[in-house]
């Protein structure tokens, strides 16, 4: 089972440049996402998880933490060091942290 991390723990990891995977849909991502996050909608995780680097932690976000928990658990069961971020992008934005708009940034 994947670990869940708090917004505070994630913010420190994000500042260090960790890999962030956003498992929301493209329209949600375009409306606002964590800067540097790569888009990998939840439904595509089983076919795209091989794109993730082995041996490197991956922080998974969605809107609130539900989809990210599902994705992180799946990734963890397939050998990816995945961490679900509690509260998701909504809590990130409510905390006054930066949010990028548009679909161009790291979208796949």
TrEMBL record:
Pfam name, any one: Rhodanese
Listed SMART domains: RHOD
All copies of domain Rhodanese, residue ranges: 16-101
CDD domains in UniProt: RHOD
SUPFAM superfamilies reported for this sequence: Rhodanese/Cell cycle control phosphatase
UniProt signal peptide: none
Gene3D superfamilies: Rhodanese-like domain
UniProt-recorded name of the protein: Rhodanese-like domain-containing protein
């Amino acid at each position: 089972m994947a670990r869940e991390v708090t917004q505070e723990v994630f913010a420190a990891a994000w500042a260090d440049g960790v890999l962030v995977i956003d498992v929301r849909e493209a329209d949600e991502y375009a409306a606002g996402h964590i800067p540097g996050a790569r888009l990998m909608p939840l439904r595509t995780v089983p076919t795209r998880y091989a794109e993730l680097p082995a041996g490197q932690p991956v922080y998974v976000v969605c809107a609130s933490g539900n989809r990210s928990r599902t994705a992180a658990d799946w990734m963890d069961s397939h050998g990816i060091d995945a961490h679900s971020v509690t509260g998701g992008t909504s809590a990130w934005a409510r905390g006054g942290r930066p949010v990028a708009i548009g679909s161009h940034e790291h979208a796949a």
